Amino acid sequence: MLNPKIGLPILYFRLLNRNYPLGLWKRYAKLFQGVFTSSSILALSFDCDTDQDIDVVWDVHSRLMDMNILPIYAVPGDLLKRGEKVYTRIFETGAEFINHGGREHTYFDKELNRHVSCFFYDQQTLDILKEDIVLGHNTLQSVLGVTPTGFRTPHFGTFQRNEHLTFLYQTLREMGYVFSSSTVPLKGYQYGPIYKKSGIIEIPVTGTFTEPMNILDTWAFFEAPDRQKIASEYRNECNQIGKFASTNPILLNIYGDPSHIYNEPLFFESMKDLMQTMRNCNFSQLIEAVE
Ligand SMILES: [Zn+2]
What distance in angstroms lies between residue 271's CA and the mean position of ligand 1's atoms? Predict the structure, then answer.
C-alpha cells in the first residue's frame, strides 16, 4: 500500500508549483486519501539544534500540550546530553524522540552574533555519516533509555539525491529503523505523504500553501537573517492550509526549532487554528494508522 508508483517528471511538479499550487495540494490530498481513511492529521516536530532550545523548550512544549499537541523531538546527541534534564522531562510526558545524529550541526558565530549551520551530511564521507547516525542512536539509548526507530537527517535539504537517500535507508535498515522524515515536500507530491523506499517508511515534510515546494518551517518565517517572509505570513499559510484540510483530508508534517518561536504568539495561534480541523499524531502513531 505504501509502495510508490512510477513518479511523474519533476518538471510537472515545478510547473504546478509556479502556475497552479492548489493542483499540488489536491494531488497531495488524493494520495493521503489513498492511504488513510481519517480526517486531517498534524505531525509537529522540533529540531533542537542549539543551547537556546534547551532554555525555552519546556515552555514551548507545555504550551503546545495545553492545545493537545505532543511534539516530536529531533535533538543531536551532544545537545541531548547537555539538555538531559529538560529532554527527560519532555520524554516523560510521552513525546516521541527520533535520532538526529550525534554531533552538533550548528555553531555560534561571535562575529555574526548568531548560529550558523555546519556539518552538512552531503559534505562528509560515508564512514563519518554512519558514525554520526550510530552516535545519535547510542546517545538516545544512554540518555533517555529509548531505542529510536526513526531518523531525521541534519540539514536534510542538501541530502536529497538518490545516492544520499539510498545510503541513508540502507544504514537505517541495518540498524533496525522503521522510518525517516528527511525528505522535501516534492516527495510528498510525487509519492504521497507516507511511502516506503528501500525498506524504510519515509514521511516527507510539508510545503507552504502558496509555494508548495518550499518547506513550511520556522527558520524561513521567523529566524533566517535574510528572510523574505514575516510571521504574519506563517499564520496566513497555516490558515489557508487549515481551510483546505477541513474539506480535503491531508497530513501536515511540519517542523521548527523551539528557539525560533518561543516568543512568537503568531506561531501558537497558527497551531491552535490547525487543531480546529486536525488531530495530532506522532510519527509512530501515523505509521500504525496505515499498517
Ligand atoms: Zn538539526
Answer: 21
CB 213 within 8 A of CB 181: no
For ligand 1, a single-atom ion, which residues have Cβ within 5 Å? 47, 49, 154
How far does residue 153's CA lie from ligand 1's centre (Å)?
Answer: 7
Indicate the pTM of the whole model: 0.95
Give me the half-sphere count of Cα atoms (radius 13 Å) on the Cβ side of residue 175.
Answer: 24
Determine the distance separating the centroid of ligand 1 and the alpha carbon of 118, expressed in angstroms. 10
CA 103–ligand 1 middle distance (angstroms): 10
Distance 150 CA to ligand 1 centre (A): 14
What cell does 118 get? 555546519
* Cα angle: 172, vertex 176, 180; to 5 degrees: 45
Q: Tell how far the Cα of 76 is from the centroid of ligand 1, in angstroms.
A: 7
Chain segment 130-164, per-residue pLDDT in tens: 999 999 999 999 999 999 999 999 999 999 999 99
User: Could you write out the DSSP letters of every residue in 75-142?
Assistant: E-HHHHHHTHHHHHHHHTTT--EEE--SS--EEEETTTTEEEE---GGGS-HHHHHHHHHHHHHHHHH
The rounded Å distance from CA 46 to ligand 1 centre is: 9
Sort 248 into a burial class: Cβ within 10 Å, 0-12 / 13-18 / 19+.
middle
Q: What is the CA(133)–ligand 1 centre distance, in A?
A: 13
Quote the ligand 1 centre to 238 CA distance (angstroms): 22
Q: Kindly report the CA angle at 76 between 165 and 114, in degrees rounded to 5?
A: 105
Which listed CATH number (3.30.1230.20, 3.30.1360.120, 3.20.20.370, 3.90.320.10) goes with 10-290?
Answer: 3.20.20.370
- What tens digit of pLDDT does each residue of 199-227 get? 999 999 999 999 999 999 999 999 888 88
